[in-house]
Amino acid sequence: MATKKKLPTKSDTTPDTKIPTWRLDKHLARKRKAFLSRRPHRSFRLTKRREYSRSLVLPGYFSFTNSVRKELLANKKTFLLLALVYAVLSGLLVGITSQATYTTITDSLRQAGTGLFGGDVSQLGTSASLLGSALTGGITQTLTPIQAVYASLIGLMTWLTTVWLLRNFLAGNKVKLRDGLYNSSAPILSTFLVVLVAILQLLPMGIAFIGFSAAQASGLLSGGVEAMLFWIAAGLLVVLSMYWITSTFIALVVVTLPGMYPIRALVTAGDLVTGRRLRILKRILWLLGTIVVAWIVVVVPIVLIDTFLKGVGISIDVVLPIVLVIMGSLTIIWASSYVYLLYRKVVADDAKPA
Prior knowledge:
Shape: globular
Strand content: under 5%
Largest sheet: none
Distance between the termini: 74 Å
Structural class: mainly alpha
Helix content: over 70%
Mean pLDDT: 77
Radius of gyration: 27 Å
Number of helices: 15
Order of helices and strands: HHHHHHHHHHHHHHH
Number of strands: 0
């Protein structure tokens, strides 16, 4: 007697696309084990020195800075042209420093004293205040949304072009600025996403600065337990941002590698700085120090001369806005070169965490 054939049900014809729980758990456990093997530190647990000791052979601060200078001077024509392109694009698309705003500030500086030329050393302090305003954008006009987009794109393109050119120069390739401008923009989206991560990592430091302004205005910093607690909290926020941002600086170079994704770049950079974070952070702080010194050496004398000439009826207001644009272009090229060459030194020492 023939048996009746069973018709397929809906559950039989529908493919089972659900990943088995045991397989997912095994995959996550494997990834966690690999992560812990690369990162010996554990949250809220004292790490023994033998677990985080990791070599990092770097030249001295002055020696490394000089090596960056030599590398840029070896290809000075290309990088000067890049600085000129940045300055022209920034001046045309973003605009230069507002002369009216600058005139108001320099007039107030001139009225504060007779100036350094008259023997008033306090003019150095007022000039330093103006320099701080320049570095933080205090004497630039408020950017419109489209100008802010242009400024971000120009800055990213300059960073990517500098890294691309240095990578090819160190590989022995003879390339021109045109090649860098045309070929370096591939990872611009990935770089932008890493920059967004850096901005998020700087939020604790921003909160600390906002809190400092509010505490200063309310008189909280006059002394007492409240002031002590504020400085402790603000210090922890700043340290947290600096801890995060150290690896992100390296990630900005890693993400320029062909086929590299933002998340992977951040993970790779984190692996590179493990056990070396403080030493790399010191180098980044040194970079910021060299930038501040360069701005002081170039901008402050112009401010002093301008203040002095205004006292005798001569105005050179048009000079400083142009100088600020040029200094901005040179600064981003210098910072890009410094971080890239630092990245190469870190990669060259491929020692694993203990």
